[in-house]
């Protein structure tokens, strides 16, 4: 998605080249004032497109980071609620690197949770449960994109990237709770895209 936007911005650069090539500074062709006006108009298109591309890419990166943070937190709590930890060092390392304030968690430090407390947090109505975690992720995308379809698409891709980055951090597939959270997040974003007239079935083939 982001690559397509960058390609699109390159297309606009042709406007400037065209303005300069087709309107040389010759009295018999056009005035200097008109030539400068044409160039400025083309340049303004390039600047606007480049600015929008940068804005969308930055948004996608923020979504990716936020999603990864949510998935890492959810998986960490899920492991804390289990009976055995296969890699406690990795768990500690990832938990120490989480920005819990960024996702609105104000509770007990995760490293200090008991098994029962962790289980409560990933339960159906828990802060790190599927419903609340998917809502945080999807709402972040929807609120940030508004009615901008391209930003919504970029945000959707950012969620998937965040999930994949979390998998890399843990060194393997995330548990079912995170897979379901990803699915619910994408469903909510797709619903918003549909409301804006996008055929999500075609888009996600």
UniProtKB/TrEMBL annotation:
This is Hydrogenase-4 component G.
């Amino acid at each position: 998605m982001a690559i397509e936007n960058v390609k699109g911005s390159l297309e606009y650069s042709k406007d400037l080249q065209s303005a300069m090539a087709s309107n040389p500074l010759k009295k018999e062709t056009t005035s200097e004032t008109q030539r400068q006006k044409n160039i400025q108009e083309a340049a303004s298109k390039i600047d606007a497109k480049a600015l929008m591309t940068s804005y969308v890419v930055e948004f996608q990166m923020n979504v990716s980071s936020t999603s990864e943070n949510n998935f890492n937190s959810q998986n960490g709590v899920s492991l804390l609620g289990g009976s055995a930890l296969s890699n406690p060092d990795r768990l500690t390392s990832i938990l120490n690197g989480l920005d819990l304030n960024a996702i609105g968690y104000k509770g007990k430090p995760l490293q200090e949770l008991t098994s029962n407390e962790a289980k409560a947090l990933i339960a159906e109505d828990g802060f790190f449960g599927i419903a609340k975690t998917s809502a945080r992720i999807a709402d972040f995308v929807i609120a940030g994109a508004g009615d901008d379809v391209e930003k919504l698409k970029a945000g959707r891709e950012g969620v998937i990237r965040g999930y994949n980055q979390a998998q890399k951090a843990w060194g393997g597939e995330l548990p079912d709770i995170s897979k379901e959270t990803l699915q619910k997040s994408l469903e909510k974003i797709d619903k918003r895209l549909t409301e804006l007239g996008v055929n999500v079935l075609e888009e996600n083939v």
